[in-house]
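Progress report, Aim 2. The chain analyzed during this reporting quarter is listed below.
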Amino acid sequence: MTIELNENKELKKISEDELPEYVPLVPIKVGERRVLVKTIQKRDKTASGIVIPESVQSSDTPTAIIVDTGEGVEGYDKGDIVYVNPTGGEFIEYEETLFAVLFAGSIIAKLTNVSVPIQEK
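Predicted structure tokens for the chain:
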């Protein structure tokens, strides 16, 4: 079981079936002091297919999985589950999966008791 903060900064739980079995390895290398993450929370879409950014959907702190770390990033490994600043980062779409590139300083917290494997599809 993992935990996440709600809009009142109180702890709430996410069920383990919300975590993916694994995150695919992607050929994207991030720059110095940056991390590549894949958010765990599902993104809603409008009827026409436009993705509504998480920062507009709710004020919950987004939960993400670290896919890659750049040079100079310490304390985080691939597969770590982290809470990130909802307004930080640049988004990259690769093979219909949305990733975000963030400065490591945009990570608010890391869960220490759980991780997700990063592997080939």
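Residues 38 and 99 are 5 Å apart (CA to CA). The chain is about 5% helix and 40% strand. These observations will guide the mutagenesis work planned for the next reporting period.
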